[in-house]
User: Fold this.
Amino acid sequence: MKTKSMKPLSKDLLDKMDSEIATRVMKWKSVWVRGYSTGAFIGGHYTSERACKSACERDQRPIHLWETSPGMTCGKSKENWSPTRDILAAWDVVNEMRRRCSVQVDTVGFEPNVFRCAMGWGDDILNGNAEAPTAPLAICKAALNALPKKKKS
Assistant:
């Protein structure tokens, strides 16, 4: 049996997809907060790392978080939330997309390392499909494919 050859994606491309999933699918906003090396952070959301750094005191550092609603973060940082590589984070995407359309994730027959995700069918407004070497990546690709394309300005 012949298997499909899928090229691995670079870390930079996966990071970019993670950000696109956060902003387009989850509808989160990127913010910076002042934090400590322990992982604890304190209030004050900043729109840039530079503004956050200038507000930080000696024992603080800027932490990049996702804001889920004005003034509220989900505690997930750009460094630790990666739906393209982590199945728990990818399931956040599944749960969000299930509010908008049908979702199905499965394997492709007996082929090793080929996962498929279908989002939307029938009367669903959103519709996107994808295959990838991992389930999280298939989920993210399908979610991005299901959303209307961004208009170029």
